[in-house]
Amino acid sequence: MELQNFYPRSKLVTKTTQVEKPRFPAFDAHNHLGEDFGGGWDKRPLPELLDLLDQAGVVHYVDLDGGWGEPLLNAHLDHFKQPAPDRFLIFGGVDWSQWPEKEDAFPQWAAGKLRVQKERGAEGLKIWKGLGLHVKDHTGKLVDVDDARLDPIWEAAGELGLPVMIHVADPPAFFDPIDETNERWEELGNHPDWAFTSPPFPPFLHIIDGFAALVARHPSTVFIGAHVGCYAENLAWVGTLLDRCPNFYVDISARIGELGRQPYAARRFFLRYADRILFGSDMGPYPEAYRVIYRFLETDDEYFNYNAAPIPMQGRWYVNGLYLPEDVLEKVYFCNAERILIRQA
Question: How many whole angstroms separate alpha carbon 332 and alpha carbon 252?
Fold first, then answer.
C-alpha cells in the first residue's frame, strides 16, 4: 500500500464538542475574498457572503486581497466596504513589480502609493511572503526583509496609522531538504511550488531574523505577524519578540495544526500574550472552517482533525483543544483586533 492511500482511523474514544458559534463575536483579522484565495467573492452577491459570516458569528472581516495596485483595491472597496462599511476592512499592498522601473526612487514611490490607498479607504497594509523570497531590486538582487531602503514604507504606515499585516518565510520544513526526515514531505509532494529549499532560497533563520530586526527598528509602526508571528513552530522565539517589541502582534490564522500539537505550550502562550493575539482563519468565509477553530480555542477535546481532509494537510498529526478562559477568548476573538484595527484608525 502506498502512503497516499493510508487513512488510519483512530480507536481512541474521546468526546466531540460541537461549537456552532464563538463564545464572543469574532473579528477575523486575517482572511481573503479575492479570486485566488477566498473563492472569488468579489464576483459573487454580497448577501450570500454576509449570510455565511452571520452563520459563523463573524462580525468583522479583514480582506487582505486589496492588493498590489489601486484598481484592485478600489474594486474591493466598492464591492465590500461601500455597501457594508461596518463589516469589512480592506488592506492595501505594495506593487513590487514597479521596482525595476522606479529604480532608487521605488521606496518613496511605494510610500506615496500607500498614502493614496489610505485616502481611498485602505485600513491596513498587507505584505506577502514574496518579500525575502522573490522580491528583487532594480539591479536584480534579492531584497532582504529588513532592507533599510524600504524604511520609508514602514515609516509611512506608522504615520498613517495603518497596521502592517506581514507574512514572511513559511513553515521551516519548507526550507529543508525534501527527504525522509522532512515532516512536510507529503504536503510538499502535493505542492512542490511550496518548497523553498536553501539553497537556492535564503535560509529560514535569515528571513525570520531579518523580520525581527525590521519590527524592532520601527517601534511606531504596528506589525501583525501572520500565522503566529511567522514561526508557529517556535513559540519561545515569537514570545521573545513580543516581549521586546510592544508594537508587535500575531494572528493565529492557518496554524491550528501547529498550535494544537503543542497544547501545553500553546495554552501558556495564549495566557501570557492574551492582549497581543488576534483571531484569524485564512480559510475563507466558511462556517465549518471557523467551527474547527472555535472548537480548538474553547474546548478540551482531544486528538481531532483540524481540517476537512481525511489526512490533515499540514502533517499527519491531530490537535488538542486549548480550553481557554473566557477573558482570554474575548480578547482574542474581538477586543485585540478592535483596539488595533478600528480604534487606532
Answer: 9
